[in-house]
Write a structure and sequence with these properties.
Order of helices and strands: HH
Structural class: little secondary structure
Largest sheet: none
Number of helices: 2
Number of domains: 1
InterPro entries: Ald_Oxase/Xan_DH_a/b, Ald_Oxase/Xan_DH_a/b_sf
Protein name: Aldehyde oxidase/xanthine dehydrogenase a/b hammerhead domain-containing protein
Distance between the termini: 70 Å
Length: about 80
């Protein structure tokens, strides 16, 4: 059998992003800080619907910190309106 010439097989080459390739890279979503809060956005299943009421009872029972529609934020964020 003839020895074939391969471009990569049997040769060493530099892998620049070895962490990404092996799954060992650490991303911001992998970091947990004591007291850290996570945000969840509840979207309406109806486009352009007016929110009249949101029942936070179950979420608060689990220890969630609930913030209602963007109008209730202390510093309104234009992209949420």
């Amino acid at each position: 059998m003839e020895k074939q010439q391969f471009e990569f097989i049997g040769k060493k080459f530099d892998i620049k992003n070895i962490g990404k390739v092996t799954g060992r890279e650490i991303y911001s979503c992998d970091v947990n800080i004591p007291g850290q809060l996570c945000a969840v956005v509840l979207r309406s299943p109806y486009s352009h619907a007016e929110i009249k009421k949101i029942d936070y009872t179950e979420a608060e029972r689990m220890g969630a910190i609930c913030i209602g529609p963007s109008e209730q934020l202390p510093h309104p964020l234009n992209h949420l309106h």
